[in-house]
User: Which sequence fits this backbone?
């Protein structure tokens, strides 16, 4: 307990995942306590950031209304100052790499989606896509050649056999897959992660990892839980995230974030 409270005293910025952390993905619900949390953090002079696998288009209005200081989007591939809209960092896939990924996915009979900074497109909208992607982004327009004319920061696999997809050797040193749904995985750069995006923010602010706290629940938060000075997992988190957490709090619908920050004496 004393060690946790000592860590908490050093926190100057807190990053929050969206889905099932700030807000229930299904049904779409964010408790009023989240607004209270952000207001109290501002009063304390503690900065806030959103660290999400979503792109900016997918950051829903109620999350934008919280007025965070930074967006670390697309699993760290796109970082923006939320107040000035200045792009701090971006990491796009080359068109050659995307063509290689598509060629592989086509042999696996998997559809795919492109993620740009503020929009998404999909090779083909199917019932499987509707189940995996629909609750977050609604129906996507079909555009298998979208990458030829737009910057792409991330791709998604979309198939009912996603757990059987295995990267071929020629792609393993370039990309990795992070499953976020039974029917879909994020395809991210081999060295890409939310942690890298958050580190860019810390560098800008002249802060270190011990000044940073994060809340999360999924495997795309894994690197953040290794990086941040203080990490809090939601009760519903993946077992690996629960194991890495400094502290485990209640579910978001039970005001878990507010409870954790009060327990750690960061806010009243």
Assistant:
């Amino acid at each position: 307990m004393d060690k946790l409270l000592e860590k908490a005293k050093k926190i100057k910025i807190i990053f929050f995942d969206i889905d099932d952390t700030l807000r229930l993905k299904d049904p779409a619900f964010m408790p009023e306590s989240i607004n209270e949390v952000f207001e109290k953090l501002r009063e304390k002079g503690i900065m806030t950031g959103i660290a999400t696998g979503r792109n900016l288009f997918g950051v829903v209005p109620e999350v934008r209304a919280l007025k965070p200081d930074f967006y670390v989007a697309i699993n760290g591939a796109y970082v923006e100052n939320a107040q000035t809209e200045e792009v701090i960092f971006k990491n796009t896939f080359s068109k050659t790499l995307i063509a290689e990924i598509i060629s592989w996915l086509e042999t696996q009979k998997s559809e795919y989606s492109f993620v740009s900074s503020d929009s998404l497109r999909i090779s083909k909208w199917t019932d499987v896509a509707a189940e995996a992607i629909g609750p977050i982004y609604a129906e996507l327009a079909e555009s298998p050649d979208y990458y030829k004319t737009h910057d792409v920061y991330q791709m998604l696999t979309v198939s009912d056999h996603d757990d059987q997809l295995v990267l071929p050797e020629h792609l393993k040193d370039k990309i990795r897959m992070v499953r976020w749904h039974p029917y879909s995985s994020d395809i991210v750069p081999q060295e890409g992660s939310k942690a890298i995006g958050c580190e860019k923010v810390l560098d800008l602010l002249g802060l270190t990892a011990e000044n940073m706290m994060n809340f999360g629940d999924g495997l795309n938060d894994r690197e953040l839980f290794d990086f941040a000075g203080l990490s809090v997992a939601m009760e519903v988190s993946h077992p690996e995230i629960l194991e890495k957490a400094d502290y485990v709090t209640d579910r978001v619908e039970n005001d878990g974030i507010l409870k954790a920050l009060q327990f750690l004496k960061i806010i009243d």
The chain has a mean pLDDT of 95. The chain has two domains: 2-91+192-263, 95-189. Residues 32-44 form the longest helix (13 residues). The domain at 2-91+192-263 is CATH 3.40.50.1000 (Rossmann fold).
